[in-house]
Write a sequence for this structure.
């Protein structure tokens, strides 16, 4: 059984929108104030250990617009690894090794997890991540928490009457003040 790992950039107030740029948010690109070599090494190790990416259409379009033109070990892995793209609107996916996931997303992701292979990373993809969490398909949640409060923006965790208890399994703090907290369901 494959492990599904959600890895997110998030602010102290839970915002995950526009960390690397984009016109949708007044504080777009908020991660760039905190980038450090330690964090880049962490993200490189994370992607090298993964076997595939599972992403939503919006994140796919952002990644596909950036990674094919980049070079280096991280870009090479991103471009080469299989990318399962949850989409109801796109039939053609131009980025190398991109495979559309259509229909019952929960059932399709459960099949991916039951298959052979290494870890599957999910980055960005807020709507997809919320559905995965609601259906208990997330094995590990890695939150790279940035020491900034934006006050507005789409948040990782939706409003809910339900309580979800998580167990902290690891934490790393970088000199930049950014901290990676790793959780599993309690």
């Amino acid at each position: 059984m494959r492990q599904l790992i959600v890895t997110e950039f998030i602010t102290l107030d839970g915002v995950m929108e526009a960390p690397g740029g984009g016109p949708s948010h007044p504080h777009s690109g908020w991660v760039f104030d905190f980038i450090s070599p330690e964090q880049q090494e962490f993200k490189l190790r994370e992607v090298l250990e993964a076997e595939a990416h599972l992403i939503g259409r919006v994140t796919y379009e952002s990644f596909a617009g950036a990674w094919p033109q980049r070079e280096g070990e991280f870009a090479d892995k991103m471009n080469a690894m299989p990318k399962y793209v949850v989409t109801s609107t796109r039939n053609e996916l131009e980025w190398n090794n991109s495979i559309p996931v259509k229909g019952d997303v929960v059932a399709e992701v459960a099949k991916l997890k039951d298959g052979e292979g290494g870890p599957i990373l999910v980055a960005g993809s807020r709507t997809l991540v919320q559905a995965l969490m609601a259906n208990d398909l997330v094995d590990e949640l890695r939150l790279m928490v940035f020491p900034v409060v934006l006050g507005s923006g789409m948040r990782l965790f939706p409003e809910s009457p339900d309580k979800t208890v998580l167990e902290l399994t690891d934490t790393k703090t970088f000199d930049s003040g950014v901290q990676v907290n790793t959780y599993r369901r309690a």
Notes: The domain at 4-185 is CATH 3.40.430.10 (Dihydrofolate Reductase, subunit A). The mean pLDDT is 95. The chain has one domain: 4-185. The two ends are 20 Å apart (CA to CA).
